[in-house]
Amino acid sequence: MTDVVRFGLIGAGTIGRVHADNLARRVDGARLVAVADIDRKAAEACAASCGAEAFTSDAELVARPDVDAVAVCTPPETHAGIIEAAAAAGKHIFCEKPLERTLEAADQAIAAAGKAKVKLFVAFNRRFDPHFLHLRDAIQAGRIGRPLLLHFVARDPVASLGNLPRPAGDLFLSTTIHELDFAGYLVGEPVESVYATGGVMKEGATIDDPDTAVTALRFPSGVSATLDNSRLSAHGYDQRIEAYGTAGMITAGNLRGDDTRTIDATGDHRAGAMDFFADRYRESYIAEMAAFARCVLEDTPPPVTPAEARTAQVLAHAAHRSYVEGRVVAVSEFR
Amino acid sequence: MTDVVRFGLIGAGTIGRVHADNLARRVDGARLVAVADIDRKAAEACAASCGAEAFTSDAELVARPDVDAVAVCTPPETHAGIIEAAAAAGKHIFCEKPLERTLEAADQAIAAAGKAKVKLFVAFNRRFDPHFLHLRDAIQAGRIGRPLLLHFVARDPVASLGNLPRPAGDLFLSTTIHELDFAGYLVGEPVESVYATGGVMKEGATIDDPDTAVTALRFPSGVSATLDNSRLSAHGYDQRIEAYGTAGMITAGNLRGDDTRTIDATGDHRAGAMDFFADRYRESYIAEMAAFARCVLEDTPPPVTPAEARTAQVLAHAAHRSYVEGRVVAVSEFR
Amino acid sequence: MTDVVRFGLIGAGTIGRVHADNLARRVDGARLVAVADIDRKAAEACAASCGAEAFTSDAELVARPDVDAVAVCTPPETHAGIIEAAAAAGKHIFCEKPLERTLEAADQAIAAAGKAKVKLFVAFNRRFDPHFLHLRDAIQAGRIGRPLLLHFVARDPVASLGNLPRPAGDLFLSTTIHELDFAGYLVGEPVESVYATGGVMKEGATIDDPDTAVTALRFPSGVSATLDNSRLSAHGYDQRIEAYGTAGMITAGNLRGDDTRTIDATGDHRAGAMDFFADRYRESYIAEMAAFARCVLEDTPPPVTPAEARTAQVLAHAAHRSYVEGRVVAVSEFR
Amino acid sequence: MTDVVRFGLIGAGTIGRVHADNLARRVDGARLVAVADIDRKAAEACAASCGAEAFTSDAELVARPDVDAVAVCTPPETHAGIIEAAAAAGKHIFCEKPLERTLEAADQAIAAAGKAKVKLFVAFNRRFDPHFLHLRDAIQAGRIGRPLLLHFVARDPVASLGNLPRPAGDLFLSTTIHELDFAGYLVGEPVESVYATGGVMKEGATIDDPDTAVTALRFPSGVSATLDNSRLSAHGYDQRIEAYGTAGMITAGNLRGDDTRTIDATGDHRAGAMDFFADRYRESYIAEMAAFARCVLEDTPPPVTPAEARTAQVLAHAAHRSYVEGRVVAVSEFR
Description:
4 copies of one chain form a homotetramer.
Chain A: E1 5-10, H1 14-25, E2 30-36, H2 40-50, E3 53-55, H3 58-63, E4 69-72, H4 79-88, E5 92-96, H5 103-116, E6 120-123, H6 130-140, E7 147-157, H7 170-187, E8 193-199, E9 212-218, E10 224-233, E11 238-245, E12 248-252, E13 260-264, E14 267-270, H8 277-280, H9 282-297, H10 306-325, E15 329-330
Parallel strand pairs in A: 1-2, 1-4, 2-3, 4-5, 5-6, 7-10
Antiparallel strand pairs in A: 7-11, 8-9, 8-15, 9-10, 11-12, 13-14
Helix pairs in contact in A: 1-2, 4-5, 5-10, 7-10
């Protein structure tokens, strides 16, 4: 292998194009050589803008000898299949969260990567956001003493909510999963039980999956965390953490695009939130890809392990079960 | 009756002295004429500083013909007895929260006041705080659309936490009860179910009641609320509300004593929180007493009704049951 | 003399009523016994609301044996006459700023008080504002090292600006004088020279005195201060200080009436400034009066000396001369 | 000419390396082909990191046929000579501010560029900062009505202050010149007069040029601006603007590196300022270079004209004269 990881990217949708653009221009130790999408136009447009070759077949891309690693940016239910094919071809795997739609499929993917001895990294980008990292470092340095309570806010702009059918549990599996991962990452204990409530709150929604929910986590030591998630945010992309401990509290506030402030007869006004997740988390997407490239080049464990990715997925399933059944769900219910 | 309500105050502890001081100096339509405490020194000191007469017997105070209304500032488990005596004597009643320690006693108190046709007002002072009121008015005016999620923070300074025995459920009944009341006040629906978790988090604590807990409320419409309570705050008295709705969000932030800001080589520093609840809520204590005096003078229903006070107490009992049994508790379990 | 200072207040206009209300209800060590105003209705209304006796003649009020001290709240050009009469009658004097309209009259007033050995206190209330005091204490404690630059903002709501004729130099003498006093108070050196510029910026103004100006002060050590004053503020009453020194900076920010914050699709909104100076500076008016009462009762020098009041007035005259002549004015030009 | 501007950069010091790095990687429409510095090692290190050729002779670089434009990043007193040589060779010129050390030299440079019909752009990067631009756009859109008063803060970290000799007036010519330019850019009128005061405030400084100063500008309409500059900032790089107008005010606040906030028993703490100008203004350096490249490619006037650059320099000389002579200096004193 050279001193750079050559990537083939599968799935040229919104997040796929973010990663492709970064791989082509901003990630140390990475190069983008191929892009695949079943939609030929999408594949070609993305590949062209990134100086890469376009494919419509995953299999063809995976088979390329000049591809060292695959970036999986397709819908969750396709992940295991692609991961197994990539692993069989000896390619390392960068995979968008969640690992898979079902736990069974996730376990197959993990087993395949393990057997092939390739890296499997699931992209929990919050772990690479400089603001959240600063918060985590401060907690680990003891700035707030022992953590007691955490509160997460993660709200998506309502504009991003279509009326396309979504699989049951999608809110938890696609959105909450970030906070489910990060909460454990901050507390350093496995979650004991999960409670989730909320609803389909959008006027006239025809989709059954909740668009707004609160999830409460209990850790064995008595620490708890609440996760506030919604896909109906009128005020943009709202992403915050508050951690409260025996010596004080720390927050990572929401980011805004510009720092001016206007005061007039109607009040004191500042810009609100950003609108687009890829702007808010721009640095984290570059950093996570660089971290993955580094773990491939240096042959070290990925900075998010398959076991951690599975744990977050279990919590998402537990949250959904709690939401559906209206009861507290012990994590031990999931193997 | 004159154009002023003449008060006898029972219980000259911390909160009793706050109310006595306000009654003596700051509440329009009120006058303090008598103070009772089983501790003669406490009664006399308080009475002297307020130009009132001191008693050691509640009964004697309640019997005074120059007392129009009684302010009950004793421990919760004594409330029903005092309320029944006061009602029997035809006195109106201002009562510190919670209404009582048990629901049975609360119901006896409500019945006694109802039978005697005297006002019974339970002092949920958050409803009279100008900042929280402004938030509520804005919500009612539609500023955030339909509310979807609420988050409350209410943390007491660790310095206020002694190691005296506290009855089981005290955190919920004495502290959380404020947010339990206010959440319903904001949402305008009865709570459907309650989930609480947390723990005795203080190092070396010898008391069984939790000092830190999260309570999640589910409302029938799918709205939810999370309440973050703790008695271990190292950074002072922390009291906040965030309400998120279909059109945006509104927050009432924590207050600090002074508004200067210092920036030096170590960062950007401001004063933290206030230390004492009576400073933070100074205006609310005056306003709630004035509102009570007004309802007596104008013979209108009290601004917090006995039924509302009972509802908050039910929720506190439900939260405690949930905490103890580790399950979601339907409010319908309580009659 | 008793243990309380009995006040006669002269001038029942806006600021006079603020002081009367405080003297009647909120100032330890003070009592209001008499109110005089040439407008009988004004005198009677103010006196009635404060439980004091009404007069239309200053002389009559000053002659009262039950008056220990006089509070002078009339227009500046009447101050010297009243002070001389009060001093002759052996009354202590609390006088609104500025001391007088001209330096000659100010000197006569100072001389009269000195000869009669009565206290003469000019009410620079910023020195008693808790936020500004906290800033000053922090500076004196070395929090920012040696001060290098100061910046003051003091803007009055445009609503307070009438089109009544104002004497030349009124902006500097009535408004800027607060910052001229406070700047010297913070730096601890006499000002060396003054430069002021600005203009009559109000559209269609028929008054010659500037409504908006910047004043720059030079201190002998090289420290400088800029004062930003305006009577055209559309956003309310805006009062701030920034002090920058060798070890950092400190600011006292503007105050707002309520602490809620709304975030919606149009941005992040908070309440702007307060509208009324007597709300913004409520505590300072009580504190300065209490400090004056204390200096009378304890026979100590007033917390603002006549010499300090004269210095601030000299600076206001220097600023006006600089504004008119378009040049830097040395303070030494004024005796 | 191709569709990209090929740059030769002269002067591989701090700011030169910032521009070289941007030209090599981040500026659309630009390519870096050559770097010259009289220090061979500096030239080679910079050129190597940017994939460009290294020179020790300006003349040689200027003579290169594959260089379309020259970026002048050498000390001010060398600018005119390089500009004249570049113009003679038909190269377009990007020049760091100030245009030159003396007005005579600046005029020669302008004349040379004019005669050769090459673009001459002086790099006032504040005009390309997104935060300051947002403020300017809001003002131009009428958000604050007519501007009345402006206040600028521009303080450099004390760490950046060496004890090397600096030419007289360097503070104004190297630092204040940014605000002198931007103030006029915001107000849209030529400055009428300038007053500056301040001092050599650093303990034990052996350099005569002031390290801290306030400059007050008067515009013909009565608008004024104050500029607060210092090279002694203990709290980092502090860059702010406040504009106050008839309808309100707008500020561009200082930026901080991270957005977390810690609250503990000692207060409420956030990160202070950034430390390095190239971090604070990262985006502006890229944007100004891209704007220059565009004006070359599209043959349009540079976004900062030579006349504007000269005006800012005149104001810097006027400020210095005012500082030295202790008087208000009319801009008309300079031709």
